[in-house]
Design goal:
This protein is α/β, with parallel strands linked by helices. The protein is built from 13 helices and 15 strands. The strands form 3 sheets. Strands 6, 7, 8, 9, 10, 11, 12, 13, 14 and 15 form a 10-stranded mixed beta sheet that branches. A 3-stranded antiparallel beta sheet has the order 1-4-5, sandwiched between helices. It has a two-stranded antiparallel sheet with strand order 2-3. The radius of gyration is 20 Å and the shape is globular. It comes from Silvania confinis.
Length: 383
Amino acid sequence: MKIRHVECFPLKITPEQAYLGGSAEGHDSDYYYRPEYRCVYSRKMETCLVKITTDDGCVGWGEALAPVVPQVIAELITQLFAPLLEGQSPFASAVLNSRMYDAMRDRGHITGYHIDAIAAVDIALWDLKGKLLGLPVWQLLGGAYRQTIPCYVSGLPEPDLPARCQLAKRWQKKGFNAVKLALGYGVREDIANVRAIRETLGTDAQIFLDAHWNYSVAEAAELGGALRELGVGFLEAPLLPEDVAGHRELRAKSPVAIALGETERTRYQFKPFIEQRAADILQPDVGRTGISELMHIASLAETWNLKVAPHLSVGLAPCIAASLHVAAAIPNLFMLEYQPPVFEIANQLLTTPLICQQGAYQLPQGPGLGIEINEAAVLEATC
């Protein structure tokens, strides 16, 4: 059993509304800069899928989290990884992962697009192995600690506070009693937003806050003090992601749990945050780590008694499915992220949709990732 062919599909899908709000059409460029988040965003849903086919026609699908210029991921896989993968056994995934990582390690490519491309291949190999063996990925990972995956509604993408409160209440009525606010607009404004959501949802709801790296240690500590009184479960990304020492200092001061990790891709990058006790909850994204590395990260976190809440933003069907399998297979899961507009688009790429209802995802039961890609839809969206 050998890998015969590796194909990439960089996708651009125009949504009804841009991620986290705003117009998706009528602009000269797909990309724009959000000063409040210090990041470049696309007005479209962008990602890169990879399809690995064996010599007997079995297929595995993977995905890299590629919110901007997914063509870069496709080019890396096509030019660097496909020659390395073709002719190899899909069951040699650990060896292949090491070879792909080592291929650019001495050139400093130990994060970013290169690792994202490895993540896509890794997910596809797990899907392929599961299909060849007739087993779901969660079973290959050692079994499922849970058959449903608890989640929180992420973002509340409305332009003003009253609309965010209304949206949160609508989700609560649908059985989703945990939400995360995408804020970072200033300590006072963030507190006002959280207080309004708390008053809207009541004392039993779980509320989290993503500050998008916008604060100093002093500001984040002040915010954390106020958030404790409002019953906030964690403060995510309060400081610049490079600042390990600042996170350590903040964690010592904050009465609210500190969550981080969407920017990190390997256990080596998570290691200083773990060893210096700079976080309470780790948030690796499977579209940046792959399944294998996320399991390594979760195991390392477990040795330090830390929880894992996998990040899940604009990743589509393979990313979501892979996240579900990992979330089922790790003992130290906190919760999984749920992005309703993204989830809807992801299901458009599948013949049978993934399910998330009443505050939880259903774990796929089929072999591999347990999803079937609608290749016609993928080809239509390929750029």
